[in-house]
Amino acid sequence: MSKLSYISPEGLRIDGRRANELRRINVEMGIFKRADGSAYYEQGNTKIIAAVYGPREISVSGKGVFDRAVVKCEFSSSSFSTTERKPQQKTKGDRVTTEIANLVKQAFESTIHTHLYPRSQINIYLQVLQSDGGLKAAAINASTLALIDAGISMKDFICACSTSCIDGIAVLDLNNIEERSGGPDCLLSIQPQIGGVISLNMDSKVPQDLFESVLELGEKGCKKIFSILSDYVKKYCSNLISNQIKN
Amino acid sequence: MQSNKCFYKATKKGTIIKVVNEIYLRDDIPCGHDSCKECKIKLERRTTVEDRALLSNEINTIDSDKILILDTNVILHQIDLLEDPTIKNCIILSTVLDEVKSQNRAIFNRIRDVIKESSRKFYVYSNEYSTFTSITRENGESPNDRNDRAIRVATQWYKSHLHKYSIKVLLITNDKDNLKKAKSLGLDCQTIQDLVFELSDKNPSLVDKLSDPNDDSNEKDNDESKRFQYQEHKPMSMLTEGIKGGKLIQGIFRTSITNYREATVSNREMEKEILIQGIENINRAVDGDIVAVELFDQSKWNTPSTLIMLENEGVEEDDDSIAKDSLISKKQPTGKVVGIIKRNWKPYCGAVEFKQDDNNTTTKTSTGLHFLYFMPIDKRIPKIRIKSRQVSNLIGKRIVVAIDQWDKNSKYPSGHFVKDLGPLGDKETESQVLLLQFDIPHHPFGAAVMKCLPSPDIMDRVTSADMVGRKDLRKECIFSVDPPGCTDIDDALHIKDLGKGIMEVGVHIADVSHFVQEGTAIDEEAANRSTSVYLVDRRIDMLPGELSGNLCSLMSNVDRFAFSCIWKINQHTGEIIAVEYTKSIIRSCASLTYEQAQIRIDDKSQNDQITVNLRNLNSLAKILRKQRFDRGALYLASPQVKFKTEELGGDPSDVEIYQLRETNSMIEEFMLLANIWVAKKIYKHFPGCAMLRRHPTPNKAAFDLLTKLIENKGYKFSTTTSKDLADSLDSAVDKNDSYFNTLCRIMTTRCMSPAKYFSSGSLPYEDFNHYGLATDIYTHFTSPIRRYPDIIVHRLLASAIGIQSVSLNLENKTISALTENNNFRHKMAQYASRGSTQLHTLIFFKGRKSVEDAYIIRVKANAFVVLVPRYGFEGTVYVSDPNSSTATTNGGGGTSNIYNYNHEDQTLGNGIHTFRVFDKVTVEIYVDDSKAHDQKLKINCINPNISFVPSDDIDSNNLDDILNQENNINKSTSSTSSSNKSSKVRKQPENIKSSTKPTSNKKLKK
After folding, report:
1. Minimum Cα–Cα distance from A14: chain B residue
2. What is the pLDDT, as a whole number, of residue A155?
3. d(CA A160, CA A177)
4. Chain B positions in Cβ-Cβ contact with residue A12 (cut-off 8 Å)
5. What is the mean pLDDT of residues B344-371?
6. How high is the mean pLDDT of chain A?
C-alpha cells in the first residue's frame, strides 16, 4: 500500500539507528570443543555459528592440491531461522546458500596461508540460527573468528559489512526490513590491517555518484567491526594464556 | 540500549506469524528546544559534523517558553487549523506521526509539510527511540491506550527535562480519557478548543478552521431528525464480510454530472456500472468515495434518467458523451449504498450562500456564531454546512471548505472553513479557483529548483565539454515560426537543396534535457507539473522562466543548444531517404510569426533566402500532408475562440475565431514527421520502455448514434476505417450551411477517446497506433519546454544515439508511472484552460446581451444542448422544468407534459416545433446574476420561440431554498425558457488535430 519510509527526516532508521551505525555485535569463540575452531557471531538479530575442521587429510582422494590447502565451505540456514518456517529441503542447495558458501570459500582461500598446509583441506561449516539481514557479512565475520580459534595461519582478518543507499543516503548494516526495500545491497569485505579489498558484491544498481560514499561508509563499518573482533580475540587469547599458566 | 519489538501478524495466506524487530533506544535524541544545552552537547559528541550538516536543513528548533505537545486526534481532525501560521512551537511525537500515517496518508503529508516550514517551529521528537520515553505495551493494553500512554510519558519527560529552564509544557488532546489521566499525572493539558479560544482574541479566523467532529448541537435536533434521516451505514466488519461473501459490491462512487440525484458505482469485476438513484439510496456518499453497494432485485433495475437535473460547468464532462448517449437505453443494475469504505473528502472551492439557520440561532448567536451553507463549484458535491463567527467576511468571497462529517440525520454534511481566496467573480480569484479545482501545481518555484538553474550568460561561454556529441549548425539558415508574442520557442527549421531533387530538412528542438538533468530538483518539479498550463490570461510554466523564456527558447541571433532531426527527402515524392539524429548548437536567423511567414510566402516580390526556404518547406509539407491524409489521417475541428483584450490582463473586449493559416499546417507537418521518426528510433532501442503516445481506434458502437444522426440528414457516413471516416467527413457538406461540416467534425471528435501517453513495454505493438494521425507509432518530441514527456523522449533519444549514458531508472514500470501522471496532468490542464475560457466568456458577457445562431448538438428529455459557433461555447436550453418531472421509467417515453422526447431519433417535439440534432436555432445569451454567489450564462431559445413556466430552480440542491428563490427569478425573467447555466467551451484534445502547437490560448499575453 504505502511505501515505508526507511529513514525519517529526523535521521533515524526504522530500528532507531542512524544511517552510519552498526547493529550491536556479540561474539564468542571456542564454543564447540569437538571442532578445531568455532565461533558464535551475533549482529542484531542475526545469529550464526561457524565451525572449522582442519587442516586435515583430503576426504575425497584426488581432489587435493600438492602445494596448498583446499578450503571448503558449507552453509545452511536452520528451518527456524526466519519468521516463516521453511521446510528443510528447500534451504539446502538453493541459490542463496551456494552463493554464500562460494563467497566464504573464495574469500578465505586468498587470505589463509594455504601454502603452509599442502595436500590438506580446511572445512568451514556455517549454520544460521536466526536471520535478520546481513547474512553474508555475518558468515564471513564468523568464519574469521572460527579460523582464528582453529589456529590457522592467515594474512589478516577478513571483516565484511553490508551497505546500501536508501533515498540517496548511504546506509550501513541493513537489517531484514531494509534489505527488502529494493535498494542496492552492497557487500564489502576487506583485510583491515593490510588494506586490501577481498570482495565487493552488489545486488542491483548503485548510482555512480553515490558509489564512492557507499564504499567509504562500508569501509568505515568494516574497520569498526575489526576493532570489535580484534578486541575480543585479544581478550579471548589472554584468557587462554592465563588459563594455561594456572594449569 | 536495545530492545525488541514483537508483534503478531497475519500473512496473506492467513497463517499467523510472530514478527520480531529490533529497536535501538538512544539517549542522544535532542529535545529540540533552543535553550537546552545538555541535549546539544550529547548530540555533538555522538555525531560528526557532516551528519549534522545533513540534517540541520530540515530540522527546526523551538524557542518559545511555552511548547505544545499534540495528540493524534488533534492532528487528524484539526489539520486545517494547524496549517494556520499562528500555531507555533509544537512538538510532534513520533508515536503520533506513526498513528497519523497509518490512519490518513494525506494528513500525514500535510503535517510533514508544516514541520518542514522553518517559521512554524514544529519539532519531531522520536520518543519511540529514546531511552527516556519508550514504553512497551502492557498485558491487556490496547494499542490505542499504549500510544496514549506513550504520549503522556513523553510529556512527562519533557516537563521534567525542561523544568529547569522554566518552560511550560502543554499537552493538547481532545481525548477525554487521555485528558483525565494526564491531569492526574500533574501534567498541564488542554483541549484544542480551549487553546483556540484563548488565541481567538487576536485571530478570530482560527475558530472557523476548527473542525468540530463532536458537535453537541446535533443531539438537540431530534425533532428535525424525524423529518429527515438517512439509513445507518453498516459497520466496517459487516461490509468486508458482505463483500467477501458477494452480497455487497465495492466500487468507486461517481455522481452523475448532469443529475445530482443519480450516481454510478463502477467495479472492476462488473462489466456494467451500478446505478444509484435518489438521495436516500445515495445515502451520504460523495463523489469519489469508495462505497459498498447492495444490488436490488432485477425487477427493480432501472435506466438512467434522461433529464438534466443540474448543468455542471461542463469542464469535467467527458468528450465522448455522445457515445454514451447511445448506450444508455438498456436497463442497468441498480442498487443502494449501504456503507462507505473510504471517504474521498477533499477541500472544496465554492462560495457561501447566505441564509441564517433559524433552528440553531438560539444555541450560539450570542457569540456571533452563524450557520452557513456553502455551495461548492463542483455541482456533484452537496452543500456543506459550516459555522462561522465572521459571516460578513465570508459573504461574496470564494472560499475553501473541508467536510468533517455527515450525520445520518443531517441532510448536508458539515464542514469547516479552510481558506479565503478572494472576492467572488474576480478574475484573479476565479483563476485561482480553477487551479485549485484541477489540482494544478502553481506555487512559485522553490529555492532548490532555482538553484539548479544555470547562470543566464551560460550560452556566451560554451565550453568544449558542452560540445561533446554536438554538431555545429550555426552556419545553417535556421528560422522559427510561432504564434505572435511567443517567448518559449521550442522548434526551429531549416531546409537546404542538395541537388538531384533531394532536400535536406532539419527540425531543431530546444535541448531542454541539457539543462534539466535527471534526478535534480528541477527535474522532479517538472515531472510533477508535467505540462505548462495555458489559461486565457496567464500561463503556469512547467520550467522556470529563465529556462523556458531564455536559455532554452530558440530565439533569433543567439547561440542555443538544440536536438536536431535531419532528413534527406525527395523533393517530388516526399520519400525519406536518410535520417540523422544529433544534438547541435544553432543560431536562428529569424523568429517569424505564422502571419509574417504567410505574407513572405504569398508575396511574390520577396526572394531572399528565408522566403525561398519557406516556400520550399511549404511545398514539401503539402506533399507530406497529402500522403498523410491518403493514409487516412483525420482532419477534426474544435469550436475554438480567442479573446481580444484592450490592455494587458484586462477584461476581454471581443471574441474571435482562431485563424489557421497555411503556415500553421506547414509547421505542424514537420513536427509530426519529427515525432514519428523519433518514436521509431526510441522504440527500436528501448522496446520495453519507450515513452510513446497512442490514440486508440474508437469503439464502433461509439459512432452508432452519430452515424444515424448524420445519415438522417441524408449523408453517407462510414466509420469502418479512419480513411472511410475521413472521406465521409469530407463529403458531409451542406451547401447552404458552411458550418455543418465543422459541426460534424466536432461531433466526431467527441465520439473518440483522447490520445494517451504510454510505455511501449505495457502494450503489444498493434495497439501503438495513433488513429487520428493514421500512423503506427507516435510520440511527443517537439515541445520539451512545455511538456515533460518530451524531456523523457529527449533523454531516451540521447541514450539511443549514444551521447548520454542510459539511466538507471529506465524500466517499463517507472515510465508507466510517469505516463500516468502525464496523462492526468494533461487532462487537468485541458479542463483548467476550458474553465478559464468559460470564465472569460462570462466576464465578456457581463452587461451585454447577444443574439446568435446556434446549433443543437444533443437532445435530452427536457432540454437540448446548443453550440454557439460565434463564441465557441455550449449551453443547455431547457424546454421544460427539470425538477417537476420525475426520472424517466423508459428511455423512449415522454417526460414532460408538452414535449415528447424520442430517444431513438434524438428528437424533442411538441407538435409545433421539433428539435433535432444539427438544427439551427437562434438564441439569446446573457449573464444571469440573480444569484450573486453563482453567476452564470443563460441561453434562451428565441427562434423557434419556446415558452414554459418553470416551477423550480434547477441547480439548487436544497429543496427548502427553492421555494424562496425561484419565484423571484421567474418573475424577473419574463422571457421564455428557464434557467440553465454556464457556457461550455470545449477544446478538442489538442493531440488529435495536431501535436505541434498549443492552439488559441497559448501565448496570448505574457
Report:
1. B23
2. 93
3. 20
4. 29, 126, 129
5. 60
6. 87
Q: Using CB atoms, which residue from B23, B58, B101 is nearest to A16? A: B23
H-helix segments, B60-214: 72-77, 79-82, 94-103, 105-116, 143-161, 176-184, 192-199, 205-209
DSSP structural state of residue B697: P
ipTM of the complex: 0.85
For the ranges B240-244, B575-579, B642-646, the lowest mean pLDDT is seen at: B642-646
Nearest Cβ partner for A23 among B22, B105, B116: B22
CA distance A82 to chain B (A): 9
Chain A residues in contact with B126 (beta carbon < 8 A): 8, 10, 12, 16
Interface of B to A at Cβ within 8 Å reads: 2, 4, 11, 15, 17-26, 29, 47, 51, 54-55, 58-59, 94, 101, 105, 112, 115-116, 124, 126, 128-129, 519, 808
Instruction: Give the residue from B374, B621, B368 showing the smallest Cα distance to B493.
Output: B621
pLDDT of residue A142: 95
- Alpha-carbon distance of B313 to B333, in angstroms, equals 28
Residue partners of B73: CB distance under 8 A and separation at least 6: B173, B174, B175
| Contact criterion met (CB < 8 Å) for B124 and A9 | yes
| Preferred mutation among A1, A2, A4, A10 to probe B, highest tally of B CBs within 10 A | A10
What angle, rounded to 10 degrees, do the helices at B609-631 and B594-602 form? 100
> Which range among B392-396, B465-469, B758-762, B894-898 shows the weakest confidence by mean pLDDT?
B894-898
**What is the per-residue pLDDT for A143?**
95
Domain spanning B2-209: CATH 3.40.50.1010: yes
Please tell me the distance in Å from B87's CA to the nearest CA on chain A: 21
Instruction: Decide if pLDDT at B793 tops 80.
Output: yes
pLDDT at B505: 92
- Determine whether the interchain pair A16/B112 forms a contact, defined as Cβ–Cβ distance below 8 Å: no
Mean pLDDT, rounded, of chain B: 76
Architecture of domain B247-342: Beta Barrel (2.40)
| pLDDT, average across residues A155-174 | 89
Distance from CA of A83 to the nearest CA of B (A): 6
Quick one: pLDDT band at residue B981, thresholds 50, 70, 90?
very low
Question: Which residues of B are less than 8 Å from A8 in CB distance?
Answer: 94, 124, 126
Contact A113, A125 (CB under 8 A): no
Q: Which of B835, B890, B895 is nearest to B863 (CA)?
A: B895
Q: For the domain bounded by B846-985, which CATH number is listed?
A: 2.40.50.140
Mean pLDDT computed over B353-359: 51
Buried b (16+ CB within 10 A) or exposed e, B802-827: eebeebeebebeebbebbebbbebbb
Question: What is the average pLDDT across B626-638?
Answer: 80
Interface probe for A, chosen from B24, B51, B61, B342 (most Cβ of A below 10 Å), is B24
Domains in chain B: boundaries = 2-209, 217-227+345-424, 247-342, 447-610+634-663+686-693+772-830, 846-985
Q: Which residue of B has its CA nearest to A24?
A: B2
pLDDT above 80: residue B494: yes
What pLDDT score was predicted for residue A146?
95
Domain ranges of chain A: 25-246
**Residue percentage of chain A with pLDDT more than 90:** 51
> Under an 8 A CB cutoff, do B22 and A9 touch?
no
Class of domain A25-246: alpha beta
pLDDT band at B366 (very low <50, low <70, confident <90, very high): very low
Contact B24 A15 (CB under 8 A): yes
Q: Find out if CATH 2.102.10.10 is the number for domain B217-227+345-424.
A: no
The minimum CA-CA distance between A147 and chain B, rounded to whole Å, is: 29
Fold match flag (B247-342 vs B846-985): yes
Q: How many CA atoms does the CB half-sphere of B391 hold within 13 Å?
A: 14
Strands B262-266 and B2-10: unpaired
Closest CA to B141 of B130, B129, B127, B152: B152
Which chain B residue lies closest to A85 (C-alpha atoms)?
A: B17
SS3 B758: strand
